[in-house]
Every structure is written in C-alpha cells, then in structure tokens.
Amino acid sequence: MPRGALIAIEGIDGAGKTVNSRWVVDLIGSMGLRSSYTREPTDGPIGRLLRSGAFGEFSDPRVDALLFAADRLHHLAQTIEPLLSEGVMVVSDRYVHSSIAYQGALTGDRAWVEELNRFARRPDLAIYLDVDPAIGLSRKLSERPTKFERVEVLERVRDLYLELCEEGELLRIDASRDLENVRKDLMKAVEELLRNLR
Ligand code: TMP
Asked: Taking a C-beta distance cutoff of 8 angstroms, is the pair 10, 39 a contact?
C-alpha cells in the first residue's frame, strides 16, 4: 500500500486555515484518495490542556513551547503516523511551523523552538495562508480572542512565517484575495504534491 502524505496548513488567526483545510480534505477525497482532517492544538490530553487556558493569559512562552511540542509528538504517534502508514493523506490545521512562528516570536529563540521539535517529521507540503494581522483579527471579531491574538504579537509571528517562506519551508498563498483564487492556488499545490508522490 502506498504511504500517505502530510499536508500542513498554516497561518495567523483569521487567515482561513480551518475552512480551507477541510476544503483540501474534500478535494483530495474527490480525487478518489483517502484523506483526513486533523488539527493542533489537538483534542488529546495535552491539546485540551493548552486550549483550556489553564495557564492563564500570561503563561511563560517557554512553557507553551514545551507543551505544543509535546502535543505534536503525541499527535504524530497516536494519529498522524498510523494514518500515513494506511495510505491516508493527512491534512493538519497547524503543525510544526506554528510553533516556530508563534513560540519563536514569543520566546525570541527560534533555534530553541526548532530543537524542541527536532523529532517531529517535516510535512510533505506546508502552506502558509498569508493575511495582514489586522485583516485576520477583523475576521475573528465575533469570537473571544486567544492570548496570541493581538496585532503586535501577530506582526512578529507573520514575520517569522514569511522568513520560513523565503527559506522554502512554506509555500506562501495570498489569502487576502477572494476564496476562489486562494483555492485555485491550493489545488495547484496539492496536484503538484500528488504528482511527485507517484
Ligand atoms: P487555533 O486558533 O488554530 O485553534 O489555534 C489556537 C492558538 O494556538 C492560536 O492562537 C495559535 C496557537 N498555537 C501556537 O502558539 N503554537 C502552536 O504550535 C500551535 C499548534 C498553535
């Protein structure tokens, strides 16, 4: 059985990651391949702890970095690797580059965050949906903001995401455009990945 592939969809809050990750899952399904949606922070024990806000608004970003990295290794072992070995295409709504961008910005030590995530396999395709933080936040006004959702923080997070794009780690898609154009680019990237897997 051919191995699956891991696709990560990244972006700051309000970039449209969730709706587009689910769309990519459906797209791959429509091509006759098995695909599955997953997300980080996960719904597992460490992810639930992270989402609970138990550490409060001003938790130490280094503690967050450790917890996100632990959640990811658990996610890989429990969910992602088993699906990949069954030949499933896994679409993760956030993955390792979220930690490099968010915890890299908040700890000021990208290299340390990368080291923490050394055992997390790299995705086969990682897409960055790029929007200006002010646009992203305005799209999420109806929801209660998380502690990361401040323009000053998200500007620094975006700078790191853009650095990763320049390094070739992430494929940048301009997500300030209408959905139709964003999806054309998503489809192109997915088709290219699938061609290279054959
Ligand atoms: P979500 O809004 O995509 O559900 O993610 C929740 C928050 O978690 C979001 O503000 C970004 C943050 N986050 C990190 O800071 N580092 C990480 O590694 C991940 C996966 C998420």
From this structure: no
**CA 198: distance to chain centroid?**
25
One pLDDT digit (tens) per residue for the chain, 198 residues: 668 999 999 999 889 999 999 999 999 999 999 999 999 999 999 999 999 877 766 689 999 999 999 999 999 999 999 999 999 999 999 999 999 999 999 999 999 999 999 999 999 999 999 999 988 888 876 666 677 778 889 999 999 999 999 999 999 999 999 999 999 999 999 999 999 987
Q: What is the pTM of this model?
A: 0.95
Range of the domain at 51: 5-197
**CA separation, residue 30 to residues 9, 34, 49, 117 (Å):** 19, 9, 35, 33
Verify whether ligand 1 is closer than 6 Å to residue 53 (CB atom). no
Q: 64 CA to middle of ligand 1, Å?
A: 10
* Cα 67 to ligand 1 centroid, rounded to whole Å: 11
CATH for 182: 3.40.50.300
How many distinct structural domains can be found in the chain? 1
Separation of CA 143 and ligand 1 centre (Å): 15
68 lines ligand 1 (CB under 6 A): yes
> How are beta strands 89-93 and 125-130 bridged, if at all?
unpaired
